[in-house]
Amino acid sequence: MDLKSRDDPVVLKLNTPEFHNIFTQEVLDLKKIFEKYNYEIRIAGGAVRDLLLGQQAKDLDFATTATPQQMKEMFTSEQVRMINMTGEKHGTITPRINDKENFEVTTLRIDIVTDGRHAEVEYTTDWKLDANRRDLTINSMFLGFDGSVYDYFYGYDDLKNRRIAFVGDPDVRIKEDYLRIMRYFRFYGRIAEKPDNHDRHTLDIIKQNAEGLQNVSGERIWMELKKILQGNFAGELLKEMLNVNIGQYIGLPDPNIEELEKLLKRSKQLSLHPMSYLAALLNNIDNVTLLHSRLKFSSYERDMAYFIVENRDKIEGSSRPLLHCEKFILNSKIKQKDAIEYVQELLKYKGKEKLLEEFNKWDIPKFPINGKILKDNKVPAGKMYGRIIHKLKDMWIDSEYKLTTDDLVKLIPSVIEENKNK
């Protein structure tokens, strides 16, 4: 594409503490190897963006003029171990420097053929051509080891203006890989200063291409969507995504917008888990199952959504509002840590800050009856054990944990009798 670009791509030289912090011994040793073999190497992607924002660089990724084969020969000569060889088909080699730190180094490339999900690539030594194939301008910059920031397509300007823009024509970029729709919203949440400062033309193009997401795997969509829902403006971005018809292609064909609005009004200041936002959009547990079949949640995430949808109306109007939650934790067959986190999220979902504080101070009591005590009190072995323990535990919880072991033992005969009658 014949894109408007800078004649001189170097826009500034970084000389900040955050920039100097990236130079561990391992980074310096990686640089020396490439210099020795006369291949150019620069820092690419997210680290450049973070450093320009005055933040610490989290993960360092590198781009180079060396081909994967040249890198393999070079690292083999230098006796540097390479790991994760699956990246080689994408042009990425991962050396382990000083047997201490792994770095992903990717050959400069151009996309020759794309089908909306995968690309056939050709290697190049032209940095501008590599920048040209990237999705967003803020992700198309490189950083030299001397601090020079190379910005061919005005990503630095967009970063300063907190603007999210595709490199070139958004329609072309999105059709190359439809997951870029999700990445647009993810980076908007990371970079933008206001929730509603989108470029309308870009949103129109996204709407026209939303159907392409139906051919992208649920795992890839969930990876991006989860990051969106962990970032800034999560609820507003979710609503905007539904406005541009993304919902039906990612497993949300009939979202409950009204419930989402209520959630945002009462709870968005409470650091909600991504599953809370999605649970608000789901009308019943069958919807949870359908969304899980599309996005492939972890079992922890899936069960949190089930719990919220099933229990969101059960802590209203009770004289002891935490009773339902306490029973869930004390009777739960899942890990107690997970059960506690589910309850905490449910209380955040409902906007119950005071109840959440009260719950967080609750010392979980230990049920004073066990199988040995039942046996000592001549309870016949078998299925009745579980039923009796469950009934005694309910009575103990209802007493606000005041019933002692002796009190509960005295209740055993009446509980046995009740079970026999049933």
Structural topology:
Layout: E1 10-13, H1 17-20, H2 25-36, E2 41-44, H3 46-52, E3 61-64, H4 68-77, E4 81-83, E5 92-97, E6 101-102, E7 104-107, E8 109-114, E9 119-123, H5 127-132, E10 142-143, E11 148-150, H6 155-160, H7 170-176, H8 180-191, H9 200-209, H10 218-230, H11 234-243, H12 257-267, H13 274-281, H14 285-295, H15 299-311, H16 323-331, H17 336-349, H18 353-361, H19 371-376, H20 384-398, H21 405-421
Parallel strand pairs: 3-7
Antiparallel strand pairs: 1-11, 2-3, 2-10, 4-5, 5-6, 5-7, 8-9, 10-11
Describe the structure.
This protein is of the alpha+beta class and 422 residues long. The chain folds into 4 domains: 1-162, 2-Layer Sandwich (Beta Polymerase, domain 2); 169-250, Orthogonal Bundle (cca-adding enzyme, domain 2); 254-364, cca-adding enzyme, domain 2; 371-421, no CATH class. The protein has helices spanning 17-20, 25-36, 46-52, 68-77, 127-132, 155-160, 170-176, 180-191, 200-209, 218-230, 234-243, 257-267, 274-281, 285-295, 299-311, 323-331, 336-349, 353-361, 371-376, 384-398, 405-421, and strands spanning 10-13, 41-44, 61-64, 81-83, 92-97, 101-102, 104-107, 109-114, 119-123, 142-143, 148-150. The strands form 2 sheets. Strands 1, 2, 3, 4, 5, 6, 7, 10 and 11 form a 9-stranded mixed β-sheet that branches. Helix 12 packs antiparallel against helix 13 (274-281).
